Amino acid sequence: TVVCTVVIYKTLENIPNIKDSEPAELQRKISVKKSVSSYNEKIDWHNYDTIRKDANRTGTGEQGAPAYLTSSENENYEALFKVNGFNAALSDKIALDRSLPDIRHKQCKAKKYLSKLPSVSVIVPFHNEHWTTLLRTATSVIKRSPPELLKEIILVDDFSSKEFSKKPLDDYLAVNFTKVTALHLPERSGLIRARLAGAKVATGDVLIFLDSHTECNVNWLPPLLEPIAQDYKVCVCPFIDVIQYETFEYRAQDEGARGAFDWEFFYKRLPLLPEDLKHPAEPFKSPVMAGGLFAISAKFFWELGGYDEGLDIWGGEQYELSFKIWQCGGEMYDAPCSRVGHIYRKYAPFPNPGKGDFVGRNYRRVAEVWMDEYAQYLYMRRPHYKAINPGDLSKQKGLRKKLNCKPFKWFMETVAFDLPLKYPPIEPDDFGFGEIRNLAVPELCVDSGYKERDQVVNIATCIKENNKKGEQNFTLTWHKDIRVKGKTLCFDVSDPNDKADITLYPCHGQQGNQYWRYDVEKQWFLHGGNPRCLDCDPGSLKLFVTTCDENSKTQKWRFENVNLT
Ligand code: UD2
Ligand code: MN
């Protein structure tokens, strides 16, 4: 087996020359195939002892069941929820080594993996993570990883201000663990540079990144490592399960999907492909990682230059690394048999550390370096990104050139081929906007009078002529509702009776009581599916809807700007 070990590790060390005439990429694939076929003994990596003991556990949160605080335990609930965005008081009542339900596909239970797998450094960046969720992350890694594969866990403290994050943490780790250390950064660096700091000191063949509020499930490690042992340019993500922020219940988010994004850069998912569905326990290709949880060989990570260290605080690094992996000769997979739970917070409790729109700047950097002409799709939805100064990009652009990375077009057509370019669709033009002026009494305009929700809209003297106070700027949007400028209040009519009031109500975009059209020829504002006309009483200044009447002049309105296309 000693000889074989050397062969396997060769794929991680260097690329042997097979045929000099072959392109480098093909050579790599051939060499990988050879080394694997020469040694491919597979074994069952399950730790049945731990599985058996876990099955017998009972208590708060055990087996991933939803848990609740008793009224006597409720004391710190609110204060702790507020600073964490999840039920940290409940976390304190749940064992650090709690049992989890094995919700893998049943084929995973019978799967074997290569007997020789690379060693691992787990890197966990954290900023003000709650004590027990942080320690439960480390504990679950230790508990469910084969010790011979796990070299170390590095908790990278991104300049936390919580008292226990420094010496008490170091002391706790020294007493309770042998493989877990904390690296304290001297200034707030953001999660991207925190991960880089951890990766720089890591000694394992493979780097695994985790968020600081995660729990690794049964046999999570071998499915992440095997594809990397077979090809060091493969990055593998686990399935990310949901730890519910209120009850700590552990459950699946869905049956699996391919990671993607929309053109506002929200993380989205694409359906599995037919061939993926045929092999529910096999890794499948995924265009983009969720970001927090993945395994990559240290060799490939550093060949790719790690992360762009110009990315600050939070956001965008998942796209940067995913694009880089694909465009620069690697591949990315999701492994269904590796599952890790993650607390999706109710809200992010951290204040902006005074760095402005760091997410926008990060996105701009990623778009400028990697996305070529497709960056325009992002800028179309977020025009203000074009005004953000991304800072110096020469190093990133140099790297892309040096590694001879493929164009983004290749990524879009080959990897994310089913990601629609109109996603989300750009909003159609509005039908019209501006003042709504009556024809019977042309100095009268519809006026919302700085009113709030549930208040009635009337008419008033048009501001333009008399320069009086008022609020007379409205938009007939493509949703077919009438919105008060600068507000998200819409003209709403719920009364079916004659001369029904127009009330301000939050816009829902679902038409119904907020459904309006403008008839350009008749100059009518029509409300509802069984249309009534906007009308007014110039004497009382009341506005209402009533049966349409071709002869009525008070039902005619001049809408200042009408978009006729
Ligand atoms: C998701 C990812 C997260 C990251 C982020 C985009 C998952 C499950 N999570 O958001 O890993 O890719 O998208 O950037 O895929 N942290 C620091 N310093 C900071 C801010 C955060 O160390 O200045 C730590 C934080 O304690 C946590 C990790 O970075 O361990 C990710 O932050 P998050 O949990 O707020 O991100 P999340 O899960 O909303
Ligand atoms: Mn997270």
UniProtKB/TrEMBL annotation:
<keyword id="KW-1015">Disulfide bond</keyword>
<feature type="domain" description="Ricin B lectin">
    <location>
        <begin position="434"/>
        <end position="560"/>
    </location>
</feature>
<keyword id="KW-0333">Golgi apparatus</keyword>
<keyword id="KW-0328">Glycosyltransferase</keyword>
<keyword id="KW-0808">Transferase</keyword>
<dbReference type="GO" id="GO:0000139">
    <property type="term" value="C:Golgi membrane"/>
</dbReference>
<keyword id="KW-0812">Transmembrane</keyword>
<dbReference type="InterPro" id="IPR035992">
    <property type="entry name" value="Ricin_B-like_lectins"/>
</dbReference>
<dbReference type="Pfam" id="PF00652">
    <property type="entry name" value="Ricin_B_lectin"/>
</dbReference>
<keyword id="KW-0464">Manganese</keyword>
<comment type="pathway">
    <text>Protein modification; protein glycosylation.</text>
</comment>
<keyword id="KW-0430">Lectin</keyword>
<dbReference type="GO" id="GO:0046872">
    <property type="term" value="F:metal ion binding"/>
</dbReference>
<dbReference type="InterPro" id="IPR029044">
    <property type="entry name" value="Nucleotide-diphossugar_trans"/>
</dbReference>
<keyword id="KW-0735">Signal-anchor</keyword>
<keyword id="KW-1133">Transmembrane helix</keyword>
<keyword id="KW-0472">Membrane</keyword>
<dbReference type="InterPro" id="IPR000772">
    <property type="entry name" value="Ricin_B_lectin"/>
</dbReference>
<dbReference type="Pfam" id="PF00535">
    <property type="entry name" value="Glycos_transf_2"/>
</dbReference>
<dbReference type="InterPro" id="IPR001173">
    <property type="entry name" value="Glyco_trans_2-like"/>
</dbReference>
<dbReference type="GO" id="GO:0030246">
    <property type="term" value="F:carbohydrate binding"/>
</dbReference>
<comment type="similarity">
    <text>Belongs to the glycosyltransferase 2 family. GalNAc-T subfamily.</text>
</comment>
<keyword id="KW-0479">Metal-binding</keyword>
<dbReference type="GO" id="GO:0006493">
    <property type="term" value="P:protein O-linked glycosylation"/>
</dbReference>
<dbReference type="GO" id="GO:0004653">
    <property type="term" value="F:polypeptide N-acetylgalactosaminyltransferase activity"/>
</dbReference>
<protein>
    <recommendedName>
        <fullName>Polypeptide N-acetylgalactosaminyltransferase</fullName>
        <ecNumber>2.4.1.-</ecNumber>
    </recommendedName>
</protein>
<dbReference type="InterPro" id="IPR045885">
    <property type="entry name" value="GalNAc-T"/>
</dbReference>
<keyword id="KW-0325">Glycoprotein</keyword>
